[in-house]
């Protein structure tokens, strides 16, 4: 059992490193192609932070562990929404932009509804349904790019105006964290700025993701059998928490730096990616049977996503405050407890 845990932890480390290399290499290439940073962040970074979930789900489906694929997505999305966004709001109140309220949150709920509907209709996901989910994801990305390019100048102007009127957030401690992270990434950024370095970063990142996913899936399956618990519980707890680490790091650091738009957008955008792409792509390789026990998990995901939108009209308008963040974090702990016990 100790060896399995070691493999799982080492696999998570490889997933995080691989995702970082994939994101950094992709961003470098995107900049060379002339894509604005804002559009790059909404597309490349969103997919990059969901890369661990994607590779783990594809590997799980191909190796016949469908429960872990669905559990990984359900658990990761709930961890993103309740734990990561909750912790971010505790660090600093999160402003909910109108774009997030009007498009990203509804898109997330629609994606969850489509996944559950298709999975319950035929008792699982087949290649055609997987292709439809992937198409929905591509449509989401295309719309995001078009709107991002069209409204980039307006967004920059709004940010500048907001910065001149809002009170600055306290920066004791967080500034130190930001400095450490910036210094740690400076060397890597210089390497990846070169075209060959960016391509090499992409290749190494993909390889590390594959190796890390194999270690996590194999170790988790063995661990589940050793302790006598289901792959579903392993998927929504251990695997989900491990694969959502890139989102956790991104959102928490963004909150420390006062970049609340990034913290919220990273979570909501990653959830759309998880539900549509991370579940759609594995179905193209193998049919994924669906356990109706996941209906509760995905229903809770849709409800709590709607609650996030409701924060825009409760208390300070368009803000998720610290009390909301604490409530979300407590709800996540309660969810884990119920999932493990029952």
Note the topology.
Elements: H1 2-32, H2 37-49, H3 51-62, H4 66-91, E1 94-95, H5 98-121, E2 124-125, H6 127-165, H7 174-192, H8 195-227, H9 231-243, H10 245-256, H11 260-285, E3 288-289, H12 294-310, E4 319-320, H13 322-341
Antiparallel strand pairs: 1-4, 2-3
Describe this structure as you would to a colleague.
The protein has 13 helices and 4 strands. The radius of gyration is 19 Å and the shape is globular. Residues 169-175 have low confidence and may be disordered. Helix 4 (66-91) crosses helix 9. The longest helix is centred in the middle third of the chain and has 39 residues, at 127-165. It has 342 residues and is mainly α. It has a two-stranded antiparallel ribbon with strand order 1-4. A two-stranded antiparallel ribbon has the order 2-3. It has helices at residues 2-32, 37-49, 51-62, 66-91, 98-121, 127-165, 174-192, 195-227, 231-243, 245-256, 260-285, 294-310, 322-341, and strands at residues 94-95, 124-125, 288-289, 319-320.
Q: Please, how many helices?
A: 13
> Over all CA atoms, what is the radius of gyration?
19 Å
Share in β-strands: under 5%
Low-confidence stretches: 169-175
Specify the structural class.
mainly alpha
Task: Give the SSE string.
Answer: HHHHEHEHHHHHHEHEH
Sheet with the most strands: spatial strand order: 1-4
Helix fraction bin: over 70%
Arithmetic mean of pLDDT: 78
Count the strands? Answer: 4
Taking the sheet with the most strands, its summary is: 2 strands, antiparallel
Report how far apart the termini are.
23 Å
Basic shape: globular
């Amino acid at each position: 059992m100790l060896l399995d845990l070691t493999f799982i932890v080492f696999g998570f480390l490889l997933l995080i490193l691989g995702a970082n290399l994939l994101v950094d290499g992709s961003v470098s290439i995107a900049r060379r192609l002339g894509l604005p940073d804002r559009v790059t962040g909404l597309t490349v970074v969103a997919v990059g932070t969901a890369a661990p979930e994607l590779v783990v789900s594809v590997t799980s489906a191909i190796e016949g562990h469908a429960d872990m694929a669905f559990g990984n997505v359900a658990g990761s999305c709930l961890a993103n929404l309740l734990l990561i966004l909750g912790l971010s709001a505790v660090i600093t109140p999160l402003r909910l932009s109108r774009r997030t309220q009007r498009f990203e949150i509804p898109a997330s709920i629609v994606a969850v509804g489509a996944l559950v509907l298709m999975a319950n209709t035929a008792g699982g996901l087949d290649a055609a349904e997987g292709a439809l989910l992937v198409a929905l994801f591509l449509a989401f990305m295309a719309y995001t790019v078009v709107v991002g390019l069209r409204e980039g100048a307006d967004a920059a102007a709004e940010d500048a105006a907001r910065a001149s009127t809002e009170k600055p957030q306290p920066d004791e401690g967080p500034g130190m964290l930001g400095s450490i992270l910036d210094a740690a990434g400076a060397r890597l950024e210089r390497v990846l700025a070169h075209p060959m370095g960016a391509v090499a970063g992409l290749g190494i990142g993909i390889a590390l993701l594959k190796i890390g996913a194999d270690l996590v899936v194999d170790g988790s399956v063995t661990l589940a059998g050793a302790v006598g618990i289901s792959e579903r519980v392993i998927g929504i707890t251990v695997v989900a928490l491990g694969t959502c680490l890139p989102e956790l790091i991104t959102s928490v650091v963004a909150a420390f730096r006062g970049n609340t738009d990034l913290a919220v957008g990273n979570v909501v955008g990653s959830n759309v990616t998880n539900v549509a792409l991370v579940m759609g792509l594995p179905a193209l390789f193998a049919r994924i049977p669906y356990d109706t026990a996941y209906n509760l998990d995905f229903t809770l995901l849709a409800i709590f996503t709607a609650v996030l939108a409701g924060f825009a009209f409760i208390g300070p308008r368009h803000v998720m405050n610290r009390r909301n963040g604490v409530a979300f974090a407590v709800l996540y702990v309660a969810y884990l407890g119920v999932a493990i016990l029952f």
